[in-house]
Amino acid sequence: xxxxxxxxxxxxxxxxxxxxxxxxxxxxxxxxxxxxxxxxxxxxxxxxxxxxxxxxxxxxxxxxxxxxxxxxxxxxxxxxxxxxxxxxxxxxxxxxx
Length: 97
Description:
Helix content: 40-55%
Number of domains: 1
Distance between the termini: 17 Å
Strand order of the largest sheet: 1-2-5
Strand content: 25-35%
Radius of gyration: 18 Å
Order of helices and strands: HHEEEEEH
CATH topology: HU Protein, Chain A
Number of helices: 3
Shape: elongated
Oligomer: single chain
CATH architecture: Irregular
CATH superfamily: IHF-like DNA-binding proteins
Structural class: alpha+beta
């Protein structure tokens, strides 16, 4: 049985460099700009729609009190915004293969 392997950002840059025939520096800049732009758009409360791949959006989380099981201590988590990703149809089909 094969265990799942996670791809690091460095490995992603290497793959982009290889497949797009870019230098590693150019591929790294491309990946950095891509990730930075997604963060910038989300920080404004807008969403990023990549047709077929999925949608990144910001959701509002209500504040709540939770109990830490190990210590039984109650901790209050403030209301905050959090990123959310919803996969698109093409990505879902690709993963199901």
